[in-house]
Amino acid sequence: MEVFDVIIVGGGPAGLICAKALCKSDKRVLLLEKDDVFGDKLCAGGLTRKAMAMLEVPDHIIEQKICDATLFSPRNQSFTNTPSPLLFTVDRKNLGK
Ligand SMILES: Cc1cc2nc3c(=O)[nH]c(=O)nc-3n(C[C@H](O)[C@H](O)[C@H](O)COP(=O)(O)OP(=O)(O)OC[C@H]3O[C@@H](n4cnc5c(N)ncnc54)[C@H](O)[C@@H]3O)c2cc1C
């Protein structure tokens, strides 16, 4: 019989990042996911710079780097363009892999 330190139910981003962190600290982790693949869900796949760093997203799964944004307020609208992307998009199944 296999023994685990932690059992995580659900392989969404929260479960996967928990599993990764626990494995890095040498815990034996069992991750249970009810679907056949990780990340098969309705989602735009948009990630901020901070999320990209936290999730350690590899470059090869980045689909889009978004540098342009239009900001709306009740009275104003302004356009911004930054040299480093504000937002990235990834496919959720690739992120799950
Ligand atoms: C239309 C839409 C667009 C979105 N776009 C974005 C976006 O662009 N950027 C962004 O950051 N967020 C976006 N989100 C939000 C994002 O999808 C969620 O914040 C994120 O998925 C939450 O992650 P989670 O791990 O908590 O839960 P989930 O992703 O819901 O993962 C839960 C997992 O648990 C599994 N599970 C459930 N019950 C069981 C069980 N009994 N046994 C085993 N496994 C089980 C499920 O199959 C699933 O894989 C969007 C959401 C929606 C609805």
Please state the overall shape, judged from the principal axes of the Cα atoms. Answer: elongated
Number of separate structural domains: 2
Which sequence of strands runs across the widest sheet? 3-7-4
Using only C-alpha atoms, the radius of gyration works out to 17 Å
Helix proportion range: 10-25%
Question: Ligands in the structure?
Answer: flavin-adenine dinucleotide
Give the integer mean of the pLDDT values. Answer: 94
Q: In percent terms, what proportion of residues is strand? A: 25-35%
Described by strand count, sense and barrel closure, the largest sheet is: 3 strands, antiparallel
How many extended strands?
Answer: 7
Number of helices: 3
Low-confidence stretches: none
Query: Would you tell me the structural class of the helices and strands?
Result: alpha+beta
Instruction: Compute the separation of the termini in Å.
Output: 27 Å
Kindly report the oligomeric state of this protein: single chain
Please write the string of helix (H) and strand (E) elements. EHEEHEEEEH
Short description:
With 97 residues, the chain is an alpha+beta fold. Helices cover 25% and strands 31% of the residues.
